[in-house]
Design a protein that fits this description.
The complex is a heterohexamer, with 3 copies of chain A (261 residues) and 3 copies of chain B (238 residues).
Chain A: H1 8-19, E1 35-39, E2 47-53, E3 56-67, E4 78-84, H2 100-115, E5 125-127, E6 131-143, H3 148-161, E7 164-165, E8 177-178, E9 186-193, E10 196-199, H4 203-207, E11 212-217, E12 223-229, H5 236-259
Parallel strand pairs in A: 4-6
Antiparallel strand pairs in A: 1-2, 2-3, 3-6, 5-6, 7-8, 9-10, 9-11, 11-12
Helix pairs in contact in A: 2-3
Chain B: E1 28-32, E2 40-46, E3 49-60, E4 73-80, H1 95-109, E5 120-130, H2 135-149, E6 159-166, E7 169-172, H3 176-181, E8 184-190, E9 197-206, H4 208-236
Parallel strand pairs in B: 4-5
Antiparallel strand pairs in B: 1-2, 2-3, 3-5, 6-7, 6-8, 8-9
Classes of the chains: A alpha+beta (261), B alpha+beta (238).
């Protein structure tokens, strides 16, 4: 990612707004942008979703490959999650090998999904020790106006939950079957902007903000993944406040995912 | 071209497996403004192809060594998303994509008034989200519309389309199966107002006569596609 | 977290396989000045983890494009030596190391007074020579001591430690087996004077209550580790 | 490839010459440079050729490897064609990963040969589904004074047509055999220089010229490969004119290849 | 490796010292720095050593992998030697792909050990044609104050001679066994500093010096590896003089290795 | 050195499998001017080795960071063409080629009057088109002739040749089989006028006496090779 110039004027402006409990696009501190989720949008993916959050637009696509199980886990298939933010998605994203930003994106989303246990890798075994399914979830941004983490996580779980295992194409059986996904982990992300945390920061808030915290909660509010990113210091009580918000917001987004299936 | 096996793709009445006649295009839909953060953008759904193009710039060209004193450089990237094809594509270096990016850039440079923006760069990002034969043509067409949507001055838009040969019959706009099992493919980039060319590739096996027939199909189709492009720009302007 | 199999790691009396109680740390030894050619350095032996950190700088930031007008940049590299783990690690690009380098840099930038050194660069090199669970915490702790040893001004040192869950019991400072077969891991980077945080990751499965318990273990352990860090800086000064 | 400075003076000079129907080295519009083709020039290649066209000099070498056939084509071997223009070949060529120019070179030459069907990949099968020959054609430039495309294509087909399958060395049988190559595809390339197309441009004409067109024709004038390169616009009648020239010139070069065997 | 500025003042100073038969740290021409060798210092390596020579500190670690023997040598395992000098080791070392300096380091140390025949690759065979041990020796510098070559070579042979083949872990047999290493090749390195050769140059002498010569001698003073590095001209009599020194010094260092086992 | 198997390469009369005596060189032919677009060039056919070298420059050194205020840098690349060996070589990064490029550059820098061209770069491109043992020596020799052909001032030309040991006999200029099955190889780079050295490598197993014998063979051979180099420069001048 190309590093934009330090936007001191923007930072000042965001601080002034924060003092008046306002945000740059008029939202409340914990308010999200308009959100849209569609599934089965890509004809060549075995599962897919498109998420729009304001001007942020991302796709998720699920593909399958046959793998040889690892010798120490002969009954298990695999899940791989990869995030790409190519230069199509914004002025500051560059071509080339994966940037630290996109590596972090992919790994944080991956951990949230993987650690929830929503995919039982034992379900992916075809012949123990010989053949198993590898599920590949590719996250692909086409328009980055902030908070790619939540958009990717949402599109990712929605794509997985509507994916179909291509048993016929790979000559594994004579009928395809839905990929079993037993849970719905949801990520909520918070950025410190103008000295306080806000939910679902947009591109200008990310640019003029400080550290961010990503929380992935499971079906019973269990914590599956946390990540603090960027330079910044936060307190236990700040964290407790965003955790409270995450608990309620994750539930709403989980309903959105279930409604799209 | 694949060209192996004896796959029947067109019947004795000249009707193709998907119901089209030899000269018919697949359905094409174009929308502009689909990437809100870009300076211009377009989505083209063409058969089961699904492509988006985004324009960023004109902006300062960097690194400095790519700058040209007398004109803008077009920095064009054609890329296939990992989930765009039947078998997943690994992200990263890819000789095919590099070549298509190069010829696409050269086609577009032929119409963009690059002299108006010395020392600058115009980024053209083409992403194939779903591929079903003819993606390079779809990409060039999407990029042309996106450039127009971004307000980049051009002498004309490039319309790109491919004709080819299946079961010894020359047909327009090959679909996936026709591309896999067909005998030739002739993609062209056409300036619809003058009938001139800025892009041309071909592979396979065509007699001189078949070659002329495929060429003529492309020329004719270019006018229909151009109309859809113009309509999208009228409709999609915000 | 691995989390498979039914490995018994803590007994009915709350004693772990290596004899520790739930809240106990592994033994930690810290020494400074172990890399004579560096501007500051430290070695941390923490259980069977063996890490060194070296500081070079502040120095001119190059290449120029990484320079910041108003502050120093921290150029942090976390790396595992090829012989540091049970299976040899191939040198070269590694997504895990890149992510850990990034979050480590961001944690340290939160305390280093980077504004004092505009346009400069401070290199922080963390090498794991032997790994036994918790290497990112060991690395951050080693880097903090090395920065202090190099005389780089900081508002506080970062103390990093992880707690987690094994056999449904929350415990402090997982060892290798506990990390492999445990159910959750919560590494944190703590400022011991204020109790504030600059680093936080977590993966696995923790109820809200378990999460709080693991958090508290980390906070408590941070004070003990901080004491060892301070002692090393007193003792190791040359 | 390092981009040389825009040679405006050279462009002007070439335009003036074109107005007088002249070329910078005195040739006519459709005239080629002196051409020399030698085969079996490299002791460690299983087939080889050296082509000299004026000051352009290239080598082609054929090597063989054993491959596992692709599951969907168990009776077929493979052909791979790779072009390298290393910095030895000229001041503007640089070391490093393949440049877009050399990628295009390799792919265009490859398509001309492959699409002609001159190599029957079924001939390359050793044991169906298990072992097949992979033919590797490496094109290697040592001196680039323009028109590497035609030089590579000519050296390539000549090297293939004189290649010997190393059956003994790979313990496939106890006697080597010539690689069966049933056709002789030939490429002709045209550059727009000073506003008109010329055949077989030299280095200065490439530097001060515009777009180029590459045509590969088969034994019966069938078209196997086309490529337009670089910025530029051309008309149907311009294309028709160069196609006419290509038809006659390809025949002459085909005779040259056959004469070298 | 980042190239430091040409240190002309340092060069002058070193020349003046050399005229007075002195060195920058007070040593004699053939005198080494204080040297320390410890083995079994790394818990996760199957063999390890740490060498300290003045302010130069390096580690060597031995790991094992299972390999398939090469078809033409079905009864042999392999030895691989790799040197890394990461930026931890000094201000001038940079991250990234291996520099020419570190490639040379690894290859010269590798040749000295390999060519001595100290490891009999036939000893590494497990099942002929199917499984064999690959011994991987990784050399890793943490502090570079000059003469990494000798430090790496010494740490390397000491790590190999104390390495244990992990037969149990890889389920090859039910008991581990020492890696058989029959010889003790030793490297001695000489730098031209101030116009004459010195032994065991430190960082400043390397920076202000000229060419260097590396000699690896085996148990009977047999020559196993030579390397001249950097710009510079030397005479046969200069070479004869350092060879004489190497013969006696290699013996001392061989004793040090044997004493550490 | 390979050194395995009991391959008989020299008979009881000291005659090698290819008919040479111990001290004999393979046939060597050198021609200059073989790369017309280069500033200087040479081809060396030495046994079945086939190498070309091209010189470009002196030219401005770029990127800037490689520039030296007081001298030219030699930018030397040794490379083996994919078809140069029995098994095809994949193009791309190669540790062996990097090392040979480095030692070749250092050998040539020792004789080129680099101080005459501050801030500039001289490119030396060595390509092995066919390899049959001793390619690094062939390459250095070709580069020396090409530098002279380009008119680059040098204190002397570097002559490079290797001797070695086969079946316990020291011989000059190993061929392919001798290199594969022999016991030692000692390549040197010699200044024929002074007998000084600028390049030296060795691997294998030589007693001190054998080492001296191989050294002497190289010294002697250098004079013969030097004569062929000088003749080529006289004959090849255009």
């Amino acid at each position: 990612m190309a590093i934009p110039l330090v936007p001191q004027l923007l930072r000042n402006h965001l601080s002034e707004l924060a003092e008046q409990n306002q945000r740059i696009d008029g939202r409340g501190q914990w308010e999200s942008r308009e959100i849209d989720l569609q599934t089965n949008v890509l004809p060549n993916a075995e599962g897919s979703a498109m998420v729009t959050m304001g001007d942020t637009i991302v796709y998720a696509g699920v593909k399958f490959q046959i793998m040889t199980p690892y010798p120490d886990r002969p009954n298990q298939g695999g899940l791989m999650c990869s995030a790409e933010v190519r230069p199509v998605a914004g002025r500051n994203w560059e071509a080339g090998p994966p940037s630290p930003e996109s590596i972090e994106l992919g790994r944080v989303v991956d951990r949230g999904i993987r650690e929830s246990g929503c995919i039982d890798v034992d379900d992916l075994c075809i012949i123990p020790g010989e053949k198993a399914w590898q599920v590949i979830l590719d996250l692909f941004a086409v328009s980055d106006d902030g908070n790619l983490f939540d958009a990717f996580a949402l599109a990712g779980i929605a794509a997985l939950r509507t994916a179909v295992v291509p048993e016929v194409k790979f000559e594994v059986s004579d009928t395809d079957r839905p990929l079993p996904v037993s849970k719905t982990p949801i990520m909520c992300s918070y950025h410190k902007v103008g000295g306080r945390y806000v939910y679902d920061a947009d591109g200008r808030e990310e640019l003029g903000g400080d550290e961010r915290i990503h929380i992935t909660l499971g079906d019973n509010d269990n914590v599956h993944s946390l990540q603090k990113g960027l330079k910044g210091i936060f307190t236990a009580s700040e964290f407790a406040e965003i955790m409270e918000h995450a608990k309620s917001r994750c539930g709403e987004l989980r309903d959105l995912v279930h409604g799209s299936e | 071209m694949g060209g192996y096996g004896d796959v029947q793709m067109i019947d004795e009445n000249g009707i193709r497996a998907d119901g089209r006649k030899a000269g018919d295009l697949r359905p094409i839909e174009i929308e502009t403004g689909v990437i809100p953060v870009a300076d211009g953008s377009a989505r083209v759904i063409w058969g089961n192809n699904h492509a988006v193009a985004a324009i960023y710039g004109p902006m300062e060209a960097h690194p400095r060594k790519i700058q040209r004193q007398d004109r803008a450089v077009l920095d064009v990237r054609y890329n296939m998303a990992p989930f765009s094809t039947s078998d997943r594509i690994r992200p990263g270096f890819n000789r095919r994509s590099r070549e298509i990016s190069k010829v696409t850039a050269e086609a577009l440079e032929s119409v963009v008034l690059v002299e108006m923006y010395p020392r600058s760069k115009i980024r053209v990002e083409i992403e194939i989200l779903a591929a079903e034969a003819g993606t390079r043509c779809v990409g060039i067409t999407a990029a042309s519309v996106a450039l127009a949507h971004a307000g980049i001055p051009m002498t004309d838009m490039v319309v790109s389309v491919a004709s080819g040969k299946i079961n010894d019959v020359v047909v327009c706009d090959l679909n996936k199966e026709e591309d896999n099992y067909g005998e030739a493919d002739l993609p062209m980039g056409i300036l619809p107002n003058s009938g001139e060319l800025v892009f041309l590739q071909m592979d396979g096996d065509l007699t001189q006569e078949e070659f002329q027939e495929a060429w003529d199909y492309n020329m004719e189709a270019a006018h229909d596609i151009h109309r859809i492009m113009v309509d999208a720009l009228k409709g999609g302007e915000s």
